[in-house]
Design a protein that fits this description.
By secondary structure, the protein is mainly α. The protein contains 24 helices and no strands. 77% of the residues lie in helices and 0% in strands. It is globular, with a radius of gyration of 23 Å.
Length: 497
């Protein structure tokens, strides 16, 4: 029986590891989400020149589709990166998997850096796929790592740091693109800077202790797990934490081994699988990445003849996103996961309706009040997203699953996230060209569906153990012979001990 303990504390090793993996891994995800916004016109000109010199003249629609592929193929790479999470995270460990992934980030940086001088736009597209692979895998391993090293009373706040550094990466990429590397001959340096963050990870991550749960349950290294726990908990006696993890593992032994396909065949996983998939589906179909990837194009709908106003508005979007996510770090353990999904989606519907209404009334050739109301509506939408639907899906999915199926479940949910991202970003410029300001009504429909889903389907996981959360989804025992279960569980306890 596990002994109850006082609430966990924010120790130096927990702060260090959280800082390293989010400032180098999560930050890169955000950086590569926002880095294409500022230099978009320069890169499109480069595409036009490179394509024309080698293949002949390209039409305006052809260039639009080529740019749409560049933006959206990042998500395709991300989807395949998410598929690689189980072997990376289970075989190599959480820390080892992140270290190896830097090969992809550094390769993408080389492609970006050499594209301009080689006059090869295909290198940019290939680099977007490769860096997408890195971000897809890292964006799954980082929340998994954070969930496994955090005390349950800090799990939400620590987990939100992943989203916080994503938003910070978006903002810094926009600032650098608009106010530093903002010439037609240095945009490739901006894209290639992603390799610097990987180099920093290769320097600082090896000092971080590995996930104690991975060391004990998967790698079967009890002494190493105890040493890691002593660092993360700042306690000498960590036997209670070891006992807690062993109890969780014994519960897992009562279930068959789970692979990716096993998520769909076990009825005990049906409900958490649906929740995991749809919280990420609605996150993307809320339209958030259409706002970030095409922020400049959206603000040009408001100020078509004022590029400085567009730049300021775009950077303002990233700034508000960061500030609101900081607030989310402090409220996630007080408000709970379910509330931070349900109520923000309600306000997102309101602000998206305001965006559509104000853009339809604004005169693009005059500076009037509708311009600023449209801008405030976009900012209100960003605030609503960043306080809940942005960070909470990553925290929630990590909490819904026990140790065995957790990596596969997170990989699945991120597949949904990335492919939804691809669909939204690939078709948004087409719908924007056809529907104009009314393009946002499409996202309003999905936001309304999200309100219904989160109200009826999503449970609260705040301040609950993994066992307490997962037990509510169990329909019945997996095995009928209870004696055999107990015998097998005790055998596994001996192996771990």
């Amino acid at each position: 029986m596990c002994r109850t303990r006082a609430p966990g504390k924010l120790t130096s090793w927990l702060i260090y590891t959280t800082s390293v993996i989010t400032m180098t891994g999560s930050f890169q995800f955000g950086w590569n989400t926002g880095v294409m916004t500022a230099p978009s016109l320069y890169i499109e000109d480069f595409y036009n020149q490179s394509y024309t010199d080698r293949y002949g003249e390209i039409s305006e629609d052809g260039l639009m589709w080529l740019w749409a592929w560049t933006i959206s193929l990042y998500a395709v790479g991300g989807a395949f990166g998410a598929l690689a999470v189980p072997p990376f995270a289970d075989i190599l460990g959480r820390k080892g998997g992140l270290l190896l992934l830097n090969v992809f980030s550094l390769s993408a940086a080389l492609m970006f850096g050499s594209s301009y001088n080689s006059h090869n736009f295909e290198l940019v597209i290939m680099g977007r796929i490769v860096i997408g692979f890195y971000c897809g895998a890292a964006s799954a391993i980082v929340p998994l790592f954070l969930a496994e090293i955090s005390p349950k009373n800090l799990r939400g706040a620590v987990g939100v740091c992943h989203q916080l550094l994503i938003t910070l990466g978006i903002l810094i990429a926009q600032v650098c693109g608009f106010y530093w590397l903002n010439e037609d001959d240095n945009w490739q340096i901006l894209l290639a800077l992603t390799g610097v963050f990987s180099l920093a990870q290769l320097i600082f991550l090896p000092f971080c202790p590995e996930s104690p749960r991975w060391l004990l349950i998967i790698d079967r290294e009890r002494k190493a797990a105890e040493k890691a726990l002593q660092r993360y908990l700042d306690e000498k006696d960590v036997s209670w934490a070891i006992d807690e993890m062993i109890e969780e593992y014994i519960e897992e032994c009562k279930e068959p081994k789970v692979g990716f396909s096993g998520l769909f065949t076990n009825k005990n996983y049906r409900e958490p699988l649906i929740i995991s998939g749809f919280v990420h589906f609605f996150q993307q179909f809320s339209g958030i990445n259409a706002i970030f990837f095409y922020a400049s194009e959206i603000y040009y709908m408001i100020w078509p003849n004022d590029p400085e106003a567009v730049d300021l508005a775009t950077v303002g979007t990233g700034t508000i996103n960061v500030l609101t996510t900081i607030v989310a770090v402090f409220v996630v353990e007080k408000a709970g996961r379910r509330a931070l999904l349900l109520y923000p989606y309600m306000t997102m519907v309101f602000f998206m309706a305001c965006v559509t209404f104000t853009l339809s009334l604004a005169n693009p050739y005059e500076d009037d009040v509708w311009d600023y109301l449209a801008l405030c509506s976009v900012y209100g939408y960003i605030i609503s997203f960043a306080i809940g639907p942005g960070p909470i899906p990553f925290v929630l999915v990590a909490e819904l699953w026990s140790q065995g199926p957790r990596p596969a479940a997170m990989s699945f949910s991120l597949q949904v996230n990335w492919w939804s991202n691809f669909v939204v970003n690939f078709f948004f410029p087409v719908f924007q060209k056809t529907l104009g300001e009314y393009v946002f009504t499409i996202f309003m429909v999905f936001q309304l569906l999200a309100v219904w889903f989160h109200y009826f389907m999503v449970p609260e996981t705040k301040n609950r153990t993994f066992e307490e959360i997962t037990s509510q989804f169990r329909k019945d025992a997996i095995y009928e012979d209870d004696l055999a279960i107990i015998e097998m569980a005790e055998h596994e306890r001996v192996k771990v001990d």
